[in-house]
Amino acid sequence: MPTTTADTDTAVLDLPESARRALADGLRGRPDPADDIDAALLALYPLFAALPPAALGEIRDFGRYPDAPAALLLRGLPTDAELPPTPVDGGPARGKTTFVSEGVLLGLTQLIGEPAGYTTEKDGRLIHDIVPVDSGQRSQTNQSSSVFLNFHNDITYDDCGRYNVTNPDFLILVCVKASPDGRGATFYASARAAVAALDPRDAAALREPDFRMNAPGTYCREHADGRDVWSSPVPVLSGPADRPEIAASANGVRPLNARAEAAWRALQEVCQRDDVAFGTLLRPGDALLINNRKGLHARDPFHAAFDGRDRWLQRTYVRRSLWEQRHRSTGVRRIHH
Ligand SMILES: O=C(O)CCC(=O)C(=O)O
Predict the structure, then answer these.
(1) Residue 142: CB within 6 Å of ligand 1?
(2) From CA 108, how far away is CA 154, in angstroms rounded?
């Protein structure tokens, strides 16, 4: 059974060695799933459905129930025996000859929803390589390394100007390589835990549409000629008091009045508290399942040498259903503008 940390709304689940071995056997020799994503998903389905029932139930619940943990750390997953150098350009690794991490990512994804890609994020790929990039070291993007990546949720900027509707419901991070300097911890602060720690006046102010959110840094750089792209005024918190939804851009939140400014600062402060945020240094064999609506995530700085040994995660964006974003379809299944 998972270890649940009630205050932080997170759970840790260690898979038994027999489950790791079964997945490792099933993933051995598989082709690159990017070659035919639906064929890969189909082949992965029975493999992951054969996980021990307690673990399978926990992962399925994570994807379904409002009262399930907001983040779930799975440990004891199989890893690739040999790895090429960590890519340095934010793109996929050249020379990866086994696809265990990709199989783990997609197999878990399929237990909670559908992998979804966006042309404005990693060129529409379904598997994202999260690696430090020299030119983005200090940016508020997943390419950064030398700065704290602020508490945020992942936004897929919607040209229709709708801020939150088509964001991923979940993201999954699989660790391929940990940072050699032992830093780069990932954090998750659930909205529920944050609200419980906030002054009620600040929580109320965060529910007002008094904030503008910047589009993701990669969107601004690659799709808006380096300009910021501010949303219309939106709230940070929404939904029922006992199950709030939260949204905040890593690349900038602009409070529109003094009350909103104070509340935004208070939120940043409580997210730094150990009793609010869950922190983990991801290692190979770990996968962190993140509910992108129930909470915000962040990452500590780490040293990047761009020498092929740097920290390397892989990520998928997961939608419960692809239906609500059909207006963004590129015509290629799963890929959206
Ligand atoms: O690198 C990490 O641990 C977090 C990555 C992240 O913030 C993201 O993928 O949005």
Answers:
(1) yes
(2) 19
The pairing of strands 10-14 and 71-75 is parallel
Which 3 state secondary structure label does DSSP give 84?
coil
Distance 136 CA to ligand 1 centre (A): 14
- The pLDDT tens digits along the chain (337 residues) read 455 665 779 999 999 999 999 999 999 999 999 999 999 999 999 999 999 999 999 999 999 999 999 999 999 999 999 999 999 999 999 899 999 999 999 999 999 999 999 988 899 999 999 999 999 999 999 999 999 999 999 987 766 555 666 789 999 999 999 999 999 999 999 999 999 999 999 999 999 999 999 988 888 888 888 899 898 899 999 999 999 999 999 999 999 999 999 999 999 999 999 999 999 999 999 999 999 999 999 999 999 999 999 999 999 999 999 998 888 899 999 999 8
Rounded to 10 deg, the angle between the 17-27 and 100-112 helix axes is 110
Residue identified by tokens 């996929």 is: 92
Q: Which CATH architecture has domain 3-329?
A: 4-Layer Sandwich (3.60)
Domain boundaries, the chain: 3-329
In angstroms, how far is CA 271 from the centroid of its own chain? 17
Compute the distance from residue 142 Cα to the ligand 1 centre, in Å.
6
pTM of the model: 0.96
Residue type, 9: D
Q: How far is the CA of 298 from the centre of ligand 1 (A)?
A: 6
Q: Nearest to residue 269, comparing CAs of 184, 187, 196, 198?
A: 198
Instruction: Assess whether the C-beta atom of 186 lies below 6 angstroms from ligand 1.
Output: yes
Q: Please state, in angstroms and rounded to a whole number, the distance separating the CA atoms of residues 27 and 24.
A: 5
Write the single-letter amino acid at 305. A
